[in-house]
């Protein structure tokens, strides 16, 4: 556990370069090339997380202002994804799930049951979270580990299945996203998009930032879209002119910088992907392997960001009007691109369709987060998570987005 904790404490920006460098050496890249690839990827991730931090630090006050201005009062506080991560890393099954995850991935690759080589070790907490839910429900570590194993298998298969979208929509060949709170929703998003295809009139509407830019030039660029959406969010938050302008420029910066950070990351990743393909083709002709990464590498796409910025007020409105919802969205509103990525990807970047699908997914996420509030609160107390002052019950939108773990949890609950 101490070894795992040391590795995790390094963070993705340090851990990923080490993993990439070791993989490069395994694929016979040579030390200089492997070292450069690893360091470049680390820099790319550092840039991505800096931009995500900028997004969060600007949207959180705006979200708080909207909650206050709209007079929302709900008894479960959204304390964000850190609660799920804290619960996960605070459970005793962590070493077992790490070992099991690596074992399952290696076996599935060797047997051609998956093409995804999941190197996103930091986000193994997603798999541990599935196990933690079941473990607290059954009081059995064995049951928790089994739930984690089932989650790993399903997520790897979903990562394979959705990989073609990463090429078509995000231009990322050789990459897959075994990211639980994102890819769990891919089947739902793809199904809903196919339903929209069958609705006359609606199926012809296509609002796509790429096409807008082609038609309107500079006025359709992502940074202009960020500027407009920032002003919209600032106005809803009741900001003065100064606050609206500051938020607008910062949102423009986010949409401008994120794709550039991803390009830096891909600069380091492509040599690894090429050398890995050559290495595997020599030893296993025809075998294809995808590098499994954090969904952070694609959330900066203009369509994803546009939909998720618009979903902030929609999510607050849904929380206020949905009967039975108890969670007050807050911390995870800045993380909506992770939760709603697969509402946008199946539409090939169509913002109009992305908004329709995102709204449906968010209804489900709010109800799941509400349903998980009692067990989340119990588990949080078990790992001494610091509760916000005056808060009796907590949950998170991110926790509500872990669809596969939630389904397993409810199946076990049904028979427990």
Automatic annotation (TrEMBL):
It comes from the Bacteria. Residues 4-416 form the PTS EIIC type-2 domain. Coiled coil: none annotated. GO terms for molecular function: galactitol transmembrane transporter activity. GO terms for cellular component: plasma membrane. One of its GO terms (biological process) is phosphoenolpyruvate-dependent sugar phosphotransferase system. It is found in: Cell membrane. Its main location: membrane. It is a multi-pass membrane protein. The chain crosses the membrane at residues 6-27, 39-59, 79-106, 127-156, 216-237, 289-321, 327-344, 351-369. Keywords: Cell membrane, Membrane, Phosphotransferase system, Sugar transport, Transmembrane, Transmembrane helix, Transport. This is PTS system, galactitol-specific IIC component. It comes from Propionispora vibrioides.
């Amino acid at each position: 556990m101490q070894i795992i904790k040391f590795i995790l404490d390094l963070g993705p920006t340090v851990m990923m370069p080490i993993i990439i460098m070791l993989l490069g050496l395994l694929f016979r890249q040579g030390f200089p090339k492997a070292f450069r690839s690893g360091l470049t990827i680390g820099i790319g991730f550092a840039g991505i997380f800096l931009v995500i931090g900028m997004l969060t630090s600007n949207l959180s006050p705006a979200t708080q202002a909207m909650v206050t201005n709209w007079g929302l009062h709900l008894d479960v506080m959204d304390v964000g994804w850190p609660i799920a991560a804290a619960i996960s890393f605070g459970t005793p099954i962590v070493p077992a799930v790490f070992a099991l995850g690596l074992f399952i991935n290696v076996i599935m690759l060797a047997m051609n049951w998956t093409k995804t080589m999941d190197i996103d070790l930091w986000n193994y907490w997603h798999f541990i979270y599935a196990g933690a839910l079941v473990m607290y429900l059954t009081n059995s570590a064995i049951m928790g580990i089994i739930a984690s194993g089932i989650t790993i298998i399903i997520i790897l298969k979903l990562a394979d299945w959705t990989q073609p979208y990463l090429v078509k929509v995000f231009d990322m060949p050789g990459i897959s996203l075994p990211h639980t709170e994102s890819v769990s929703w891919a089947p739902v998003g793809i199904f809903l998009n196919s339903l929209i295809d069958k609705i006359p009139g609606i199926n012809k509407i296509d609002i796509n930032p790429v096409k807008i830019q082609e038609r309107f030039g500079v006025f359709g660029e992502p940074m202009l879209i960020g500027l407009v959406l920032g002003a919209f969010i600032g106005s809803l938050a009741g900001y003065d002119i100064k606050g609206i302008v500051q938020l607008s420029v910062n949102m423009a910066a986010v949409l401008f910088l994120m794709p550039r950070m991803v390009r830096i990351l891909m600069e380091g990743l492509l040599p690894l992907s090429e050398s890995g393909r050559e290495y595997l083709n020599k030893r296993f002709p025809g075998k294809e392997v995808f590098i499994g990464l954090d969904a952070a590498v694609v959330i900066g796409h203009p369509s994803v960001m546009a939909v998720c910025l618009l979903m902030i007020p929609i999510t607050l409105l849904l929380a206020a009007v949905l009967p039975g919802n108890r969670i007050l969205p807050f911390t995870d509103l800045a993380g909506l691109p992770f939760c709603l990525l697969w509402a946008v990807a199946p539409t090939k970047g169509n913002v109009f369709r992305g908004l329709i699908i995102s709204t449906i997914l968010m209804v489900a996420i709010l109800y799941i987060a509400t349903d998980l509030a009692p067990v989340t609160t119990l588990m949080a107390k078990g790992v001494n998570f610091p509760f916000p002052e005056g808060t009796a019950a907590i949950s998170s939108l991110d926790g509500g987005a872990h669809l596969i773990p939630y389904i397993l949890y409810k199946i076990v609950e049904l028979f427990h």
